[in-house]
């Protein structure tokens, strides 16, 4: 079983200037929702942003992490304001 905290740590340790909010959607250790804010996302496509997050999680997506509903933002685009 995977923990939301572990996902947060892996992403924040990999992406620069990153804030990652993760919840275990079904409280089952397999289905997660994440919002990731990073300066690494500035000027790149949404697809590339998601690829960077998946890369940070290594081979865990699709194995340990069954599902990840992902929203990514450059800092200026994050709708929740200041981190």
Please provide a written account of the structure.
- It contains 2 helices and 3 strands, in the order αββαβ.
- The chain has 83 residues and is of the alpha+beta class.
- It has one domain: GMP Synthetase, Chain A, domain 3 (2-Layer Sandwich), CATH 3.30.300.
- A 3-stranded mixed β-sheet has the order 1-2-3, with helices on one face.
- It is globular.
- The N and C termini lie far apart (29 Å).
- 22% of the residues are buried.
Output the keywords.
alpha+beta; GMP Synthetase, Chain A, domain 3; 3-stranded mixed sheet; 83 residues
Radius of gyration: 12 Å
Largest sheet: 3 strands, mixed
Number of domains: 1
Let me know the number of strands. Answer: 3
Examine the secondary-structure arrangement and name the CATH architecture: 2-Layer Sandwich
CATH class: Alpha Beta
User: How would you write the strand order of the largest sheet?
Assistant: 1-2-3
The run of helices and strands is HEEHE
Classify the fold: give the CATH topology. Answer: GMP Synthetase, Chain A, domain 3
Give a concise summary.
The protein is of the alpha+beta class.
SSE inventory with pairings:
Layout: H1 4-14, E1 18-24, E2 31-38, H2 46-56, E3 67-73
Parallel strand pairs: 2-3
Antiparallel strand pairs: 1-2
